[in-house]
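A reminder from the course coordinator: this example appears on the midterm review sheet, so study it carefully.

Given structure:
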């Protein structure tokens, strides 16, 4: 009997000790996490103020631009970690009962729960601290520079809301845009005879043409050059570039009030360009173009970098943290994401699955914002999640990666699960050209009836220069019919 009583007392004392330890862990960790969360939120606001002030000013110092770019990256990373922490905390209560099975004793359950969630809080706390330390260090580095920002002239009046800015302006790329602008506005000594060439390189659909068009649309650039001509490398295979200028419709033009007559030629290089072609183009341009004229070469190939007379401007895809900031701002607009934690969680999952796709991401973001309903969002995210899993299991690649590389992709239809949309190829065209009447998103997420056979569908209308329209060649297939054909074959 005494042995049974000792075992009982041992179990009770063990249970009390376990609960006491868990209570102390919770009491000691919660305030720390909340303190770090508050400090990080405050520091993010400070970083945002500095960055917003810098965006609206014409900064020509490359060292300052690099430091601001690093601060912007640290801010995006801090926002991402803070949002992830908040969404995890929101779901934590629902997960507690799923940590262990019911086969454990009461004391074992409580002990394991305490260890699991205390470890999780410790990990989150470390991430929050790292983000806070990194961002605080960056702010200290640029604190003195922030004072000098007021010495640079303003570019434009800032909109009152960031989502209005993103819907009409290029996201990020301030440093790259300023590098291109500095190249274009830089004046060589009068004795210099070199025709300056700037390569702009980067992977497909990263925003190279958008960056250059954005800079060329700047009033200072239009005032600096008498003519701005856009050509493709296909155009000068069999004729001199000067002949192309005579027949080319000018996309950007300033009347010849500029007595210097400077010309800017933007060459979109499809693939690589061999040395003979480049020598012919450069020689013809140098002979024909007035003094002070310049060339910008846009290409996906790194080999183009060696053709420049100055260091190439290289564009990369947005990081996961940067893309989340972009996507969240477009999705929620003027709404506060903190008031819709469940919807914010769904938006973050969608952004992760999109893997940095800009115009596909913008397309989905606007669709979610126009249908601001938790039930619709759950339906869309569930559909997109299963579609991604299926695409990886069948083709071994994520859907976003395939679309970004312009490979054939297989999309589903949310309202008709027995049908599949096969995207064969994607194109882009100017805003003046006629575009398809059917939108790809209306087929994927809506009930629009597609035509039979192959057809073209609109993917996205860009609201910023160069105002390209993106569309694809696709076909809708019946999965049952496709499966039956495979069996017979």
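Designed residues:
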């Amino acid at each position: 009997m005494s042995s049974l009583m000792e075992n009982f007392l041992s179990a009770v004392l063990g249970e009390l000790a376990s609960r006491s330890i868990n209570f102390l862990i919770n009491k000691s960790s919660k305030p720390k996490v909340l303190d770090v969360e508050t400090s990080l939120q405050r520091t993010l606001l400070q970083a945002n103020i500095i960055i917003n002030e810098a965006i609206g000013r014409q900064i020509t110092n490359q060292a300052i631009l690099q430091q601001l770019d690093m601060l912007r990256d640290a801010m995006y990373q801090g926002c991402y970690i803070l949002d992830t922490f908040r969404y995890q905390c929101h779901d934590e209560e629902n997960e507690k009962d799923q940590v262990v099975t019911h086969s454990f004793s009461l004391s074992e359950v409580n002990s394991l729960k305490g260890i699991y969630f205390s470890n999780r809080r410790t990990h989150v706390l470390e991430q929050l601290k790292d983000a806070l330390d990194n961002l605080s260090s960056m702010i200290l580095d640029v604190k003195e520079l922030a004072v000098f920002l007021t010495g640079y002239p303003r570019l434009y009046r800032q909109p009152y809301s960031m989502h209005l800015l993103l819907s009409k302006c290029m996201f990020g790329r301030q440093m790259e845009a300023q590098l291109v602008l500095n190249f274009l506005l830089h004046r060589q000594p009068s004795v210099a005879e070199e025709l300056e060439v700037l390569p702009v390189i980067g992977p497909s659909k990263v925003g190279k043409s958008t960056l250059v068009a954005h800079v060329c649309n700047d009033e200072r650039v239009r005032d600096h050059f008498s003519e701005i001509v856009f050509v493709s490398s296909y155009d000068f295979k069999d004729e001199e570039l000067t002949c192309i200028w005579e027949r080319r419709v000018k996309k950007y033009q300033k009347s010849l009030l500029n007595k210097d007559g400077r010309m800017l030629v933007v060459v979109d290089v499809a693939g690589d360009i061999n040395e003979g072609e480049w020598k012919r183009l450069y020689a013809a341009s140098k002979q024909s173009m007035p003094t002070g004229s310049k060339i910008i070469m846009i290409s996906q190939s790194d080999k183009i970098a060696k053709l420049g007379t100055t260091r190439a401007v290289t564009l990369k895809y947005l990081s996961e943290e940067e893309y989340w900031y972009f996507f969240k701002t477009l999705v929620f607009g003027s709404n506060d994401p903190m008031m819709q934690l469940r919807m914010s969680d769904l938006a973050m999952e969608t952004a992760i699955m999109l893997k940095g796709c800009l115009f596909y991401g913008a397309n989905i973001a606007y669709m979610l914002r126009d249908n601001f309903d938790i039930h619709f969002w759950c339906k869309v995210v569930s559909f997109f999640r299963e579609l991604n899993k299926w695409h990886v299991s069948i083709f071994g690649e994520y859907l976003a990666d395939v679309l970004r590389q312009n490979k054939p992709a297989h999309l589903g239809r949310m309202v008709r699960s027995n049908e599949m949309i096969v995207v064969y190829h994607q194109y882009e065209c100017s805003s003046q050209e006629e575009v398809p009447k059917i939108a790809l998103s209306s087929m994927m997420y809506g009930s629009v009836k597609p035509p039979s056979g192959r057809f073209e569908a609109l993917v996205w209308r860009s609201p910023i220069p160069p105002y390209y329209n993106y569309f694809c060649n696709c076909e809708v297939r019946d999965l049952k019919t496709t499966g039956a054909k495979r069996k017979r074959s």
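Strands lie at 196-201, 227-232, 252-253, 263-268, 294-299, 313-314, 409-412, 419-429, 455-461, 469-478. The radius of gyration is 28 Å.
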